[in-house]
Write a structure and sequence with these properties.
Number of strands: 6
Radius of gyration: 16 Å
Helix content: 10-25%
Distance between the termini: 46 Å
Low-confidence stretches: 1-9
Number of helices: 2
């Protein structure tokens, strides 16, 4: 995904988050009342953040709260900003309000015990 149409203000960025109304995930989730699965939504957001910030997010932890459903045709906007620490805050909005919000934080594994104990 690209940051097409993105605006940057120091550490904050805003971009359209296009998800086609024809996306395959809508077909099976849920027939007759389609909503976008949260995993698809967050995947699109993370790809957009990674591209816009030129980051490899494979070593980052995501925490997210889903607030509203996304239906086919909803126009989505992604806002993301770096915080005081090393984290990135993000929100996904539709014309109906905030759909999801969360944080990305750099993840590092627990240090290995090097003394053999």
């Amino acid at each position: 995904m690209s940051e097409q149409g993105a605006r940057m203000n120091d550490t904050a960025m805003t971009a359209a988050l296009p998800i086609s109304a024809e996306h395959a995930a809508f077909a099976g989730h849920f027939p007759g009342m389609p909503v976008l699965p949260g995993a698809v939504l967050i995947d699109a957001a993370l790809r957009t953040i990674a591209a816009g910030r030129r980051l490899d997010l494979t070593r980052w932890r995501v925490t997210v709260k889903f607030l509203e459903v996304v239906r086919p045709g909803d126009a989505l906007t992604l806002e993301h900003a770096t915080g005081a620490g090393s984290g990135i805050r993000f929100s996904i909005m539709s014309p109906h309000g905030t759909v999801a919000s969360g944080t990305l934080s750099a993840w590092s594994p627990a240090p290995q015990d090097t003394d053999g104990a």
